[in-house]
Amino acid sequence: MPLFWNDFWQDMAINGIKIKNFSLREGNPLEPGSTTAAENETRRTYLRQQRQRRSPRTVQIIISIVAAVAVILAFIPWYASYLRDKSLRQAEQGYQIDALHTAESAASWNPLSIEGMFVLAGAQQRIGYADEARKTLQKAVRMEPLNYAAWEQLAIYERDYWNMPAQAHRDFVKASSLNPYDKELRQEGGLPPLAGANH
């Protein structure tokens, strides 16, 4: 028997109200004529009070869940950024293996961040994992194909580390097409300035 029914019976006993012939048949909780109108109204009042008591508790639970989710969503990008910065510091100090592990953790915390992929690719390249670094940057390009920075990073690695000048040129052209008025980007890729560009 549900707990609130036990409470109901106890309340009825305390208040000296006698309940007659309860029927719990589906669709007809009280048979006509089995109780008085006063008893029916007492039961309805009791059940209404029980629902009112539960409503604030339910709202509090929902608010707590929403607040917890909001905290988690705010914490994840912050912590991933912290790990990226830590990886770069470790690399500067010469701890390349530690830098790689930290960059991997950052990418796992926020796998949708291409900044995290850039840091991870750098850590992989520094310890000789060129194939893994290439896959990481190619993943960044696939994930954000309209982000010129992803194409630029891929082109820099192709030119400076992987001896792939033709592909580097192609990817610099792609990056510049997405950010056509960036003069530094065009200079980095060895591309001529745009005709009539004043920026």
Largest sheet descriptor: none
**Given the structure, what is the number of helices?**
8
Strand share of the residues? under 5%
Number of domains: 1
Question: What structural class results from the helix and strand content?
Answer: mainly alpha
Could you name the CATH homologous superfamily? Tetratricopeptide repeat domain
Shape assignment: elongated
CATH architecture: Alpha Horseshoe
Q: Which stretches are poorly predicted, pLDDT < 50 over at least 5 residues?
A: 14-33
Q: What is the element string, with H for helices and E for strands?
A: HHHHHHHH
Radius of gyration: 34 Å
Measured as a percent range, the helix fraction is over 70%
In quaternary terms, these chains amount to single chain
Query: For this structure, what is the CATH class?
Result: Mainly Alpha
| Global mean pLDDT | 82
Number of strands: 0
Distance between the termini: 78 Å
The CATH topology assignment is: Serine Threonine Protein Phosphatase 5, Tetratricopeptide repeat
